[in-house]
Write a structure and sequence with these properties.
The chain has about 475 residues and is of the alpha+beta class. Helices cover about 40% and strands about 20% of the residues. It has helices at about 5-20, 25, 50-65, 120-125, 145-150, 155-160, 165, 195-200, 235-245, 260-270, 300-310, 325-335, 335-340, 360-375, 400-405, 410-425, 440-445, 450-460, 475-480; strands spanning about 20, 45, 70, 90-95, 100-105, 110-115, 130, 165-175, 180, 210-215, 215-220, 220-230, 250-260, 280-290, 315-320, 345-355, 380-385, 390-395. The strands form 5 sheets. The protein has a 5-stranded antiparallel beta sheet with strand order 5-6-10-8-9. Strands 1-2-4-3 form a 4-stranded mixed beta sheet. It has a 4-stranded antiparallel beta sheet with strand order 13-14-12-15, sandwiched between helices. A hairpin with a 4-residue loop joins strand 5 (about 100-105) and strand 6 (about 110-115). Helix 1 runs antiparallel to helix 3 and helix 9 (about 235-245) crosses helix 11. The two termini are about 30 Å apart.
């Protein structure tokens, strides 16, 4: 029996029929990322039931030199959970580890296993009068482990921060199979490096997150959702600053949408209508929230903020959602941008950030340069202006062959966009991670000192390079050419 056959037999014995399969049909859905950009193959699909099984499996992999590709909901945007095409690795799914181990309503904390789906977490804590303040379009499939591994963002980062800010404690299996257990939340802990923060955002390249202690917030007692029309992205930023000063912590979200993008969404959704009577160059979606006693004053605050903004010429028109159904409809318009865009044809999508005060000027320059260099394309920006993070998409000219364009002009466009972002002191990945999609551009444009530090940490913790190889951490030039 070969070494690989020994490994497969031992892994099968460890995990049993429910936790280990080599069946091609069972494995197929998990070997391609949800966007369909990356596909690979694997020795097997492993689905451990608990942390102990993960630890034993990782030890087996270390002994036999088998690479591991950790996977949550397989809903990532950058191919970070997809194996390569060598077939040497196993996919390690955390989906069976979906228990909520503990919920402390008094402390406002929950201990979740990595496979807990975000929507399930929302529903569980909402039943207790609490909420987990991070949401995104893929909440029905995204898992806690995946959100931690990519340091996910979403529409509430403006007030609550990204996933990194929500994690109070963490449990992870390290590359040698040891369990790093730090689930107990401590407000003050000065014992050297904050090791849990090193694992957050590491995309499974340093260890496998198996559970976490997460911070919860009181349930929202009242909210006001506003749709405002503005003359420019500069005006949108001025309106954002106004709302921040006037509303403080009540400002939960501030999203921007281009008029042409709203047109596409309205055409895409059955029976959809724009929220405002007239057209505006840009639109802002603003959410104000309140808990407890402040709820009674939220409506008055929203009206005052808008009246002041109108008097200062910060907006052209606005409407406050009359009820919860209309509030949800405003958010549906925002969340339907991606499917509406897909109807227009292929697009290269960039999740970028620059300093908030520079975003309007950056978008103006980037749109002009990209559309001039690639005639027939349409460059659009939308998203979380309040965090300095917009999604900068470039839609292909009509009639192109999708894959040919994506791997040709589309790839060159992305390189140009990332170069522009770097020139503006920004980041080529604001909230989606690096994965394999952005690894080459990260290696080309990243700060050499920062890249060297990333490689040293990776080498120190995973010297055999078995944890999610080929993701996030670019190889050093000498390694790449060897």
């Amino acid at each position: 029996m070969s070494e690989i056959e020994q490994f497969l037999q031992q892994a099968s014995d460890l995990l049993g029929a429910k936790g280990f399969t080599r069946d091609a049909q069972d494995m197929a859905p998990w070997l391609t990322d949800w966007r369909g950009r990356f596909s690979g193959s694997a020795l097997a699909l492993a689905s451990p039931a608990d942390t102990a099984e993960v630890a034993e499996l990782v030890k087996l992999c270390a002994r036999h030199g088998v690479p591991i590709v950790p996977q949550g909901g397989n809903s990532g945007m950058c191919g970070g959970a997809t194996p390569d095409d060598t077939g040497h690795a196993i996919v390690l799914s955390l989906r069976r580890m979906n228990a909520i181990r503990d919920l402390d309503t008094e402390a406002g904390q929950v201990v979740c296993e990595a496979g807990v789906i975000l929507q399930t977490l929302h529903e569980r804590v909402e039943a207790e009068g609490l909420r987990f303040p991070l949401t995104l379009g893929g909440k029905g499939s995204a898992t806690v482990g995946g959100l931690i591994s990519t340091n996910a963002g979403g529409t509430q980062v403006l007030r609550h921060g990204s996933m990194r800010a929500q994690v109070l404690g963490i449990e992870a299996v390290m590359p040698d199979g040891q369990v790093f257990s730090a689930l107990t939340p401590l407000k003050k802990d000065n014992r050297g490096f904050d090791l849990k923060q090193m694992l957050i955002g590491s995309e499974g390249t340093l260890g496998i997150v198996t559970a976490a202690t997460l911070a919860l917030q009181p349930a929202i007692a009242e909210r006001r959702v506003i749709w405002a029309g503005v003359s420019s992205l500069e005006a949108a930023r001025a309106l954002l600053v106004h709302c921040q000063r006037a509303c403080g912590d009540a400002l939960e979200g501030f999203e921007v949408v281009l008029q042409e993008t709203l047109d596409d969404v309205v055409a895409h959704l059955p029976d959809a209508r724009p929220p405002l009577e007239h057209r505006h160059a840009w639109h802002a979606l603003i959410e104000l929230v309140a808990t407890g006693a402040d709820a009674d004053r939220l409506g008055e605050l929203a009206e005052t903020v808008l009246m002041d903004a109108l008097e200062r010429d910060l907006l052209e028109d606005a409407v406050i959602a009359a009820n919860e159904s209309q509030a949800e409809y405003f958010w549906l318009l925002r969340d339907s941008i991606a499917p509406a865009e897909r109807e227009k044809g292929p697009a290269v999508q960039h999740d970028i950030s620059v300093p908030v005060d520079r975003m309007p000027a950056f978008v103006t320059e980037a749109v002009a340069k990209i559309e001039a260099a690639w005639p027939g394309t349409q460059a659009i920006a939308f998203g979380h202006l309040g965090d300095g993070n917009v999604h900068f998409h470039v839609i292909a000219p009509p009639g192109v062959e999708p894959m040919e364009w994506m791997t040709g002009d589309g790839k060159e466009i992305s390189s140009q966009v990332y170069e522009l972002v770097t020139q503006w002191s920004g980041s080529l990945s604001a909230e989606h991670g690096i994965g394999q999609l952005k690894r080459e551009d990260f290696a080309r444009l990243g700060d050499p000192v920062a890249l060297s530090m990333l490689r040293q940490v990776k080498q120190a913790l995973d010297p055999a390079g078995l944890m999610n190889p080929g993701k996030l951490v670019p190889l050093a030039p000498a390694q790449a050419n060897s």
